[in-house]
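Suppose you are handed a protein chain with no further information: no name, no annotation, nothing but its sequence. What can you learn? This example shows the usual starting point.
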Amino acid sequence: MPKVLYSDDRNIILTRVDDSISLSQHFIDCEKNKRSDSIERALIELGELVAEIHKIRLIHGDLTTSNFLVLQENHSIVPIDFGLSYISNSDENRAVDLYVLERAIQSTHPAINFEVFLNSYQKSMGTDTINKRLDQVRSRGRKRSMVG
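A reasonable first move is to predict its three-dimensional structure. Written in structure tokens, the prediction is:
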């Protein structure tokens, strides 16, 4: 994780993350080289990481594969771009965060099994209440996309 160098009510300054690629690029590289095991490992780690973020009541607000970096040296995943983040203990807000990530993965990497991420997330959170809420958010999202 990047270290916090400075923070106030409106700003957070983190250390720079060098020698990394976006999670999106990592998935593209793995798909191209047929490394499904690397994709699965990344999804499991991502589930654990997002759960840790949510456990401290932080909602990222823009969970996409472009807002995570994969370190070249050990392939660990680092979250970035907390510009839309906020504090909340609401399962609804956590579920919306997950829904944004699910839609991002489906649109850019349709062959990736999002359930691997969800299983890891649920195991790390120790509850399935957010998954139930995610189903409700998905239902609303489908209605919205059908109506326009």
